[in-house]
Amino acid sequence: MSEATSQSEIPAKDSIGDYFLDLWCHTSKTLALKPETGAESELYDDEEEEQPTALDTLNSSGGFSVVGPDKLSLLYPNVNLHRHDVGVVQANHSAPLKRMLYYFEIYVKNAGAKGQIAIGFTTSAFKVRRQPGWEANSCGYHGVDGFLYRGHGKGEAFGPTFTAGDTVGGGINYAMQEFFFTKNGVLVGSVYKEVKGPVFPTVAVHSQNEEVTVNFGQDPFVFDLKAYEAEQRAKQQVKIDNISIPPDASYGIVRSYLQHNGYEETLKLLDIAGQSTVPPISVAPENGVSEEEMYALSERKTIRQLIKSGKIDETFSTLGKWYPQIIEDGTSTICFLLHCQKFIELVRDGKLEEAVLYGRREFDKFKKSSAFDDLVKDCAALLAYDQPSKSSVGYLLGDSQKELVADAVNAIILSTNPNVKDPSLCKHSSLERIIRQVTVCFLEKMSLNGDQGEAFRLSRILKSSKKS
Amino acid sequence: MASSKKVITREEWEKMLCSVKMRKEDMNKLVMNFLVTEGFVEVAEKFQLETGTEHIDLATITDRMAVKRAVQSGNVEDAIEKVNDLNPEILDTNPLLFFHLQQQRLIELIRNGKIKEALEFAQEELAPRGEENHCFLEELERTVALFAFEDVSNCPVSDLLDISQRLKTASEVNAAILTSQSHEKDPKLPHLMKILIWAQNHLDEMASYPRITDWSTTTLEDPSL
Question: Signal peptide location in the record (chain A) (predicted)?
Answer without folding.
Answer: none
